[in-house]
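Researcher: Next sequence.
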Amino acid sequence: ALVKAINDYTTGLITLPTITFDTVATTFNLSQLGDLKGITGLVEIDATNGVDDTINISLKDLLAANDGKGSIAFEISGEATDKVAINDYSGWNVDSILANQGSYTFTNITTGQEIEITLTTIANTTVI
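Model: Next structure:
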C-alpha cells in the first residue's frame, strides 16, 4: 500500500529491487503497486514471513516493473506452504524441465528475451 501511494504521487521512476512481506498472510499481485511503468528494477519478492502467502505473477506485470528489454532473473523466497501462480504468458514458451528444480524459464517466441523465475523453498506452484 505504501509503495502504491508513493508511486501514485511521484512523477519519476521508483527503484524497487525487493518486495518484502510483513508477518500477515498476504495475497499479492504486482499490479497492487500501482502503475508498474513507474517501478523499475524489481528482481525479488521475499515472502519469508512465517505465514501462508499467495503470490500471483503475471509476466506482463513483471516486464512492466523492470526497465530493461533484456533477460530478467527474478527470485521468490518463502515457505513451502506459500502458493505461487505464474500466469499471463501468452507468446512465451516455458521450460518444463527446470520446473522440477524450482526454476521456470520463459522465452519470448518473437524476441528471444528470457525471464527466469526461481522459487526458493516454495513447493506450491502453478503455471496457468
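Model: Residues 101 and 118 are 9 Å apart (CA to CA). The first strand starts at residue 14 and ends at 15.
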